[in-house]
Recover the amino acids of this structure.
């Protein structure tokens, strides 16, 4: 059997020890007599059996040359550590291994005869592409990483699933292009970056069996069951819908069984009602409480003895009962929780408080039908998982409070005054139906034939600004840490200080050259896990106490990193949103007085607003298109005023950011309805949905035939699709030009097609600014920037 059988891959695999033997060739020239003798011995074996260097793909040779391979790999697989290390030699994309450590073989043996070793997180559909990414790195020097954690899931002697993380050592691999290999250019690489799922493209660039792989990989394997169990608990608790699933508690039991290494475990919950001092059952599929038994609720005094009551409710500490039968028979049957456990046949248990800074929220109950397997020692395993359980309960508690509030408000929420009459009318019908003995239901709230208006003042380059602030903060903290280590080295020249300075310099270089999405998290973890413990030691042992204290004083307690430039960024965004939203709310009072209409605004990276105007909203036979035209003119004028207000205050903000304003014109009336699930109005119908699509995407659209965004700082952008909309807004612009709100540089552009939307155009015109509210001069954006900098 050949190892390449039934594998579709660009790599033709051969097991070879050539790269390892090259290491021994170097050792044979060293001054270490023992190393020289050992190297010569290994090289003699290789010389006698050339296939070990040249490579082979027949699996049978592994058995034929088993003893020789074991001798060659003896230094890599130390016999002194074989009972402790979990280690194998293997080739990529295969689950079979060779030359395994004794502990690995023991683990497989315990799993049983029917167990088949299979790697998790290795997507079979992507194996070909993963092999291509390896070639890109090995042969062409492209830094393309597909690193993911790979695991084995192997049951132990009790049938409990244990998790083993695999770390590869690929030092002994070599990849060489064959004659049918295609040269990969920068253009090829750039094309592949955006086509991960296009398997045909990858096969075109990397034909099957076009590269020779020679070598082997060493897998260092670690038991990470505890870490994976904690991660699984976190994942299981995150999803709201998961907790409603019938399989939820079954999965939860399995996770805790892996965490404790005990097959006979069940988990229960009870919620603490502080107002009534009672424990209550948690409702949900498969949920149970071993403290309450069959009861729906029980007062805390009736569920616990005085000691356990104080332990859980006052001290918020866990306690265990390692042998329920013994405690019960020794005369503690009067303790309510002992009696309840005994009657349910439970032999050992742990009760842990789910508590935050506000006090107890509930109890997690872990029980077993075996005595002594749960105790005060392994109860400490809960320390790492309790924060996730507390967080989930906090969220559930908040959700319940929100639900209660929603029911109290008769399934409604705070609504805009312009449409409140419609909700009041439906609420009356709701009450009337109940009084008449009918089943009340809150009917759909909808408004037909209304005209939408949408506008936004968006902060330009907010993502880049945040990344820049993050890089500055991390650079500042890393530099401060480096300075401290350099000073510590002058006092006591420990190699660890030099090594940490090296790592810091590496991160600093990475920040400047290759700052990625996950860089912030990696550096934060390095600072917290590697740097801080050393600083705490240095603080007590070296004359740097004041400087290290000053370092820690600059760390933000929430993010655990320096928070200086990012605070400036966050404060700037918050202040911009607050100022713009405040001005818009103030102007809205005047607009409502002109003619009532629905209005809502949202703070994002800037401020967006929706307005709807029409007969069905005002409930009066008074609507005339003149009110729509008036509101459109008002909107355009207010957007200009908001631009002015922003740039007049820009110098007061910690960071100088720019904004760009946009108005979306939709000339057809549409329908909106109140969505009970999201507590907001949304458009109705497929045709009307086009408006929402445009609204979400248009500010990122490019001018047709260019890579230039349609929105631009210093300009108002008006997006529309109909010629008469163009004529209407050119009239408004001409009027506002006469009032010196807008400049004369009008341009009309076509937009690139959006998904399902074509034919959009935009009018763009520069805003005229005043340096201050009292200033009578008019400036374009560029002129204003020059004036501000003078």
């Amino acid at each position: 059997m050949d190892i390449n059988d039934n594998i579709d891959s660009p790599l033709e695999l051969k097991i070879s020890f050539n790269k390892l033997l090259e290491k021994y060739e170097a050792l044979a020239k060293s001054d270490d007599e023992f190393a020289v003798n050992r190297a010569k011995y290994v090289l003699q074996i290789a010389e006698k059996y050339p296939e070990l260097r040249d490579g082979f793909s027949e699996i049978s040779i592994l058995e034929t040359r088993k003893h020789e391979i074991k001798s060659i790999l003896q230094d890599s697989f130390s016999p002194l550590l074989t009972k402790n290390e979990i280690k194998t030699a293997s080739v990529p994309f295969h689950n079979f291994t060779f030359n395994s450590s004794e502990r690995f073989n023991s683990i497989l043996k315990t799993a049983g005869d029917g167990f088949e070793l299979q790697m998790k997180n290795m997507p079979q559909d992507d194996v070909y592409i993963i092999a291509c990414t390896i070639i890109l790195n090995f042969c062409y020097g492209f830094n393309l990483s597909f690193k993911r954690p790979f695991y084995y899931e192997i049951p132990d002697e009790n049938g409990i699933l244990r998790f083993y993380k695999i770390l590869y050592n690929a030092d002994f691999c070599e990849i060489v292009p064959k004659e049918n290999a295609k040269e990969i250019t920068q253009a090829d690489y750039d094309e592949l970056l955006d086509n991960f799922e296009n398997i045909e493209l990858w096969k075109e660039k990397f034909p099957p069996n076009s590269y020779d792989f020679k070598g082997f990989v060493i897998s260092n394997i670690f038991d990470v069951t505890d870490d994976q169990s904690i991660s699984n608990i976190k994942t299981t608790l995150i999803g709201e819908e998961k907790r409603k699933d019938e399989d939820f508690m079954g999965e939860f039991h399995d996770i805790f069984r892996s965490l404790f290494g005990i097959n006979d475990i069940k988990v229960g919950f009870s919620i603490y009602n502080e107002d009534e001092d009672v424990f209550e059952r948690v409702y949900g599929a498969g949920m149970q409480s071993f403290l309450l038994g069959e009861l729906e609720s029980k007062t805390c005094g009736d569920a616990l003895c005085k000691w356990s009551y104080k332990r859980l409710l006052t001290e918020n500490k866990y306690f265990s009962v390692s042998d329920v039968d013994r405690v019960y028979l020794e005369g503690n049957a009067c303790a309510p929780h002992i009696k309840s456990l005994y009657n349910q046949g439970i032999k050992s248990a742990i009760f842990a408080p789910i508590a935050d800074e506000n006090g107890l929220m509930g109890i997690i109950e872990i029980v077993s039908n075996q005595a002594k397997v749960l105790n005060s020692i392994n109860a400490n395993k809960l320390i790492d998982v309790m924060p996730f359980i507390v967080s989930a309960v906090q969220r559930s508690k908040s959700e319940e409070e929100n639900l209660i509030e929603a029911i109290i408000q008769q399934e409604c929420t705070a609504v805009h005054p312009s449409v409140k009459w419609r909700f009041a009318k439906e609420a009356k019908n709701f009450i009337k139906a109940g009084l008449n003995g009918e089943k009340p239901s809150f009917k759909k709230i909808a408004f037909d034939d209304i005209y939408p208006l949408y506008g936004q003042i968006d902060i330009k380059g907010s993502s880049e600004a945040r990344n820049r602030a993050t890089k500055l903060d991390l650079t500042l903290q890393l530099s401060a840490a480096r300075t401290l280590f350099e000073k510590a080295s002058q006092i006591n020249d420990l190699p660890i200080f030099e090594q940490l300075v090296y790592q810091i310099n590496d991160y600093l270089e990475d920040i400047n050259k290759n700052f990625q999405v996950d860089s912030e998290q990696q550096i934060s973890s390095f600072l917290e896990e590697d740097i801080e413990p050393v600083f705490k030691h240095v603080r007590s042992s070296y004359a740097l106490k004041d400087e290290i204290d000053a370092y820690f004083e600059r760390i933000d307690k929430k993010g655990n990193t320096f928070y200086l430039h990012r605070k400036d960024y966050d404060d700037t965004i918050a202040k911009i949103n607050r100022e713009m939203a405040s001005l818009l709310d103030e102007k809205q009072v005047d607009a409502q007085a002109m003619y009532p209409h629905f209005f809502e605004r949202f703070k994002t990276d800037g401020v967006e607003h929706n307005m709807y105007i029409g007969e069905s909203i005002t409930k009066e036979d008074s609507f005339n298109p003149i009110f729509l035209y008036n509101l459109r003119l008002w909107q355009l004028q207010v957007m200009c005023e908001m631009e002015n207000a922003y740039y007049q205050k820009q110098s007061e903000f910690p960071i100088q950011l720019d904004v760009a304003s946009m108005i979306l014109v939709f000339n057809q009336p549409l329908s909106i309805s109140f969505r009970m699930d999201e507590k907001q109005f949304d458009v109705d119908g497929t045709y009307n949905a086009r408006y929402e699509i445009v609204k979400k995407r248009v500010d990122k659209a490019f001018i047709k035939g260019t890579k230039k965004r349609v929105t631009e700082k210093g300009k108002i952008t008006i997006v529309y699709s109909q010629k008469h909309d163009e004529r209407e807004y050119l009239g408004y612009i001409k009027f506002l030009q006469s009032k010196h709100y807008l400049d004369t540089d009008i341009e009309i552009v076509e937009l690139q097609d959006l998904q399902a939307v074509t034919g959009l155009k935009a009018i763009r015109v520069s805003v005229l600014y005043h340096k201050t509210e009292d200033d009578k001069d008019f400036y374009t954006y560029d002129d204003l920037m020059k004036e501000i900098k003078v």
Summary: The mean pLDDT is 83.
